[in-house]
Amino acid sequence: MMASERAEIDSAAALWLERMRGPVQDSAIAASFDAWIAEDPRHVESYALMASLWQSEGFAQAACATRAGNDNGGDHEDGEGGPRARANRRWFGLVAGLAALAAVVPLAQGLFAPTHTYEAPWGTTREIVLADGSHIQLSGGSRLSVRLTPWSREADLEKGEAFFDVAHEALRGFAVEAKGARVEVLGTAFDIDVLAGGRREVRVYRGLVEVAGESGAWRLPAGTGLVLEGAHVRSLEGIGGDRPGWLDGWFDAQDTRLDRLIERLNRTARIPVVLDDPQLGELRVTGRFEMDSPQEIVETLAAIHDLSWSREEGRYRIGRQ
Amino acid sequence: MPRPDALLLARDGDSPGTDWTMVQSRLIGYLRARGARADLAEDIAQETVLRLIAISRTKEIGSVFALGFRIADNLLVDQHRAESRYADAGEGAEGEEGQWQTTAPSLDRVLDSRRAIEVFQRCLNRMPALRREVLVRRRLRNESCRAIGEDLALSGKAVEKHITRGLVDLRRAMEKAGIDPAGWNE
User: Fold this and answer.
1) Which stretches make up the RNA polymerase sigma factor 70 region 4 type domain (chain B) (predicted)?
2) Is B120–A235 a contact, with Cβ atoms under 8 angstroms apart?
3) Model pLDDT, residue A108
4) What region, left, alpha or beta, does residue A103 occupy, with left being phi > 0 and alpha being psi -120 to 50 degrees?
5) Does residue B87 sit at the A interface (CB-CB below 8 Å)?
């Protein structure tokens, strides 16, 4: 096949794919689509390949990453200007094609929207209010960086746990990266927990979020949650109320590994808990724990699994009998 | 006039003769290019045609192929889901209970590979900024052409053109990288 002919077929296929994506409004368009497919077997092949490209997760992930990176280049304002977003978008549209202007935009302040990094020391919970009005509760021992541009709101939860109450904006999305998983917010309240071993937990309390992990993308409505562990994905049960229990000092364990419970406890506890033997971390625990009383938790855990505990050198130690 | 589903309009006469053999052969071509094995493509194409014929007896189908591809996609996803469930059960993987199904079950494993993502990303980065912006917004946020056009001061036609060219660019990039979107398992 001649290259030009192929290019023509591919262009037509791409155009049909775009046109047929919405509901078919017009019977004349529907008929000419059918005629185009019937005309030549190469047409359907090209159409199917275009559909595969468009729908692939690979494309969606690349587009996500590109959008995050792309905001660097287009950003020429103080990033924290929410209400101006729409005007800025229009402006961006006008100048995007003019290379000359891009050269004029100097390497001055504002070319790159600043990235703010927040950390909460162990044993404390830090409340953060972003310029867009979103509230974030950052659990002890957690680190989060946030970057607001006129076009996007991006956060990266490097470690720990955070509860996000996101101010709804029609134009700017809010996305959080958590060790390779991406949570896209559609104006909402949710909690992300990055645990040791690459496990990530997402719980949604209000609205709707989209989570993209290694093995796919999922839409989670309020009252649902997901655990991502590598390519494995499981749902989380029993998510109720309007915010996670840890904000009120509670932790609900459901067949939770002991080391995970302790990891969470140590985020807010003044006196850390350690296990004598890491293998003990594999024991499972279920129940509601009040995180403000670590000694009570240690006693309870010891009772449940027939372990011993002691308090020494500013820490609680749990070991075998 | 309300239209419950534009693909299925109320019928008001005999259906014009549809060449179902041709439809079936195009469906096979479609499914093969979507990565289905030959035997599976034939089975699904046949099942799809049977469903289309049944529907066409009572409704007028707006676009036989648009509806046919949609049915075929669903059957293909069901099939792969059933097969992967079977494979999981064989490996003694985690119980099915609580397993989430993705909202967009991907038919295209090869296109989800790390390498494919890199190729997509490189191609996107080389595009004119405006085209990239249009493509990303259409794909990620599913914004309508009109909304994108209004936001970026472009006509609907111009938006359509950016999407079309962008897709062709992506297709070329995949070809150059030797990634065959029709390939199923790497």
Assistant:
1) 119-169
2) no
3) 34
4) alpha
5) no
Q: Taking CB atoms and an 8 Å cutoff, what residues of chain B touch A90?
A: 151-153
ipTM above 0.95, yes or no: no
Cα(B146)–Cα(B152) distance, integer angstroms: 10
- Higher pLDDT: B90 or B37? It is B37
Contacts 24+ apart (CB under 8 A), A237-240: A237/B98, A239/A203, A239/A204, A239/A205
Q: How confident is the model at residue B77 (pLDDT cuts 50, 70, 90)?
A: confident
**Of B77, B17, B26, B32, nearest in space to B49 by CA:** B26
| Token pair recorded at residue B157 | 């036609």
Q: Rounded distance, CA B61 to CA B11, Å?
A: 8
Segment A81-104 shows an average pLDDT of 39
Q: Which of A231, A239, A181 is nearest to A206 (CA)?
A: A239
* Widest Cα–Cα separation across chain A: 82
CB neighbours of residue A159 within 10 Å: 14
pLDDT-based confidence at residue A24 (cuts at 50, 70, 90): low
- Nearest-CB residue to B102 (from A15, A37, A216): A216
pLDDT at B89 > cutoff 80 = no
Give the per-residue pLDDT at A252.
74
- Please answer yes or no on whether A61 and B117 come within 8 Å at the CB atom: yes
C-alpha span between A48 and B182 (Å, rounded) = 9
Answer whether residue A309 shows pLDDT above 50: yes
- pLDDT over 70 percentage in chain A: 82
Q: Is A38 on the interface with B (CB under 8 A)?
A: yes
Question: Is the pLDDT at A169 greater than 90, yes or no?
Answer: no
Query: Any chain A CB within 8 A of the CB of B163?
Result: yes
Q: Which among A24, A97, A217 has CB closest to B63?
A: A24
Sign, Cα dihedral of B99, B102, B105, B111: negative
At residue A67, the pLDDT reads: 61
Tell me whether residues A234 and B99 touch, CB distance under 8 A.
yes
Other beta carbons within 10 angstroms of residue A84's beta carbon come to: 13
pLDDT in tens, A187-211: 678 888 888 777 888 898 887 888 8
* Stated pTM of the model: 0.48
CB contact under 8 A, A53 and B140: no
Of B106, B116, B140, the CB nearest to A67: B140
Q: What is the pLDDT of residues A213-227, one digit of tens each?
A: 877 788 888 888 888
Distances (CA, A) of A114 to A80, A104, A274: 9, 20, 38
Which of B63, B69, B124 lies nearest to residue A62, judging by beta carbons? B124
Q: Which of A37, A56, A66 sits opposite B26 (nearest CB)?
A: A37
Q: Which residues of A touch B9 (CB under 8 A)?
A: 27
**Cβ pair B104:A217 closer than 8 A:** yes
Give the pLDDT of residue A269.
80
